[in-house]
Design a protein that fits this description.
Elements: E1 11-13, H1 21-32, E2 37-44, H2 51-60, E3 66-74, H3 78-88, E4 95-99, H4 103-114, H5 124-138, E5 143-146, H6 156-167, E6 175-180, E7 183-184, E8 187-188, H7 191-208, H8 212-217, E9 228-231, H9 234-237, H10 246-257, E10 263-269, H11 287-305, H12 312-339, H13 346-369, H14 380-386, H15 390-405
Parallel strand pairs: 1-10, 2-3, 2-5, 3-4, 6-10
Antiparallel strand pairs: 5-9, 6-9, 7-8
């Protein structure tokens, strides 16, 4: 059970009473009459073959307040898309699948590419961006939740708690970030958040001095959580990264577009586990190594827009400061684990810290060498301005895919 402490400058909504799910869902049904709700599920086809997504779908079948479920399907051929239609067909809610590799959506993407308005990289960011576009096109929702499809410990209470802050008409939140304890199988997980993000933010504060953005980012208990919710109007102006910086980029955009009192975070699960990425010690183009570089660059880019100037010397100081802070955190996490009867491998933790320290320098070098790099996907407002019929074209492509292949 969480405490009621409010840390930082973003409102934290706790789980203080283990309120029955039925009560939450009953209220959400009432809220849905005024603020209809949708869920975005960005998915790889491979996740349809794993245990997590089948369990998620079985829980979603019983959710009574959703008006729409939008599934973004990546890396699927025609036969796999048709299987996905059957797989998600048991959902009683209105649902649609964006077959991102299908010829219709590929043609639309090619048209946007020619205009310089499409995502430049494959991945979750691109998937989420197109799903957001479909939400705007369908017009079925005022409040939207998004969560990953690899959550092994999924329960529909996670969704209820995640969407509640932006669905309750008495609240004025535009955006809500989920958080949870990354503890599973007797050990503490969440290495990138614990061993990179938190100590890096503290190191940046030390090197750069007080900064409202760093204070804001350090307010989030789990900044890399893939679960968040938002009001539909958020979708018009948000510019999200297409790389591993997605979660950091979304938080940065919320801070740019809204006052802190319109943002919150909520405790959505007592236990949470999903598939784990390899640290990828010898390949900085994969696994948590690439993730750490992309995330670090996202922070540098945002701070540069705040007027901070970086140099090689700055990054060297930052690396040294980070390294000392991160090693202190290893001891903190070890003590926390021992007191709770959990295990934590100090050697592996410190190896991760060493890798992340190296990658801070790599991210800094890349930032200095490619100052014009812009991994952000254009906002939907800009895309609509350049191609006024884009939302209708997106919706039509999804409907025509379904009409053609659902009956094949």
């Amino acid at each position: 059970m969480a405490d009621f402490y409010q840390n930082g400058i973003v409102t934290t909504l706790h789980n203080l009473s283990n309120r029955p799910l039925e009560c939450l869902e009953q209220e959400l049904v009432t809220f849905s009459k005024k603020r209809p709700m949708s869920l975005i599920l960005p998915s790889l086809y491979s996740e349809l073959e794993g245990p997590a997504l089948a369990n998620i779908v079985s829980h979603l079948k019983d959710v009574p307040y959703l008006s729409e479920i939008v599934i973004g399907l990546d890396r699927a051929d025609q036969a796999q898309y048709q299987h996905a239609i059957e797989f998600f067909g048991e959902l009683p809610q209105h649902h649609r699948i964006l077959w991102n590799d299908g010829p219709r959506l590929q043609a639309l993407d090619k048209e946007l590419q020619a205009m310089g308005l499409a995502p430049k990289e494959l991945g979750k960011g691109r998937n989420v961006w197109y799903c957001m576009g479909y939400i705007l096109a369908s017009g079925r929702a005022e409040s939207v939740a998004l969560h990953d499809c690899d959550i092994l410990t999924y329960d529909r209470e996670l969704l209820a708690r995640l969407i509640y802050p932006v669905a309750n008409p008495q609240f004025n939140y535009e955006f809500c970030k989920g958080f949870y304890a990354r503890v599973a199988d007797g050990k503490i997980n969440g290495r990138v958040s614990r061993l990179l993000i938190t100590p890096l933010l503290r190191a940046l504060k030390s090197v750069l001095g007080h900064n409202d953005y760093l204070e804001y980012m350090d307010s989030f208990r789990y900044p890399l959580a893939g679960e968040f919710s938002f009001r539909r109007d958020v979708l018009n102006d948000i510019r999200i990264p297409s790389d591993w910086g997605l979660e950091i980029g979304v938080l940065s955009e919320m801070q740019r577009n809204y006052a802190n009192n319109r943002l919150c975070q909520v405790d959505i699960a007592q236990t949470y586990d999903h598939k784990h990425q390899d640290l990828s010690f010898h390949n900085d183009q994969g696994g948590l190594s690439k993730m750490s570089i992309d995330i670090t660059k996202a922070l540098f880019r945002k701070l540069a827009t705040k007027g901070h100037t970086f140099s090689t010397e700055t990054f060297r100081s930052l690396k040294a400061t980070y390294f000392r802070i991160a090693l202190d955190f290893v001891e903190t996490y070890y003590n926390d684990a021992i007191m709770n009867g959990l295990t934590l491998d100090i050697h592996q933790e410190e190896k991760a810290v060493e890798l992340f320290a190296q990658n801070i320098m790599k991210a800094g070098k890349n930032f200095l060498e490619y100052p014009m790099e812009t991994p952000f996907i254009p906002s939907w407002n800009r895309v609509i301005s350049a191609k006024p019929d884009v939302l209708e074209a997106l919706k039509t492509a999804v409907e025509e895919d379904r009409a053609e292949f659902a009956q094949s």
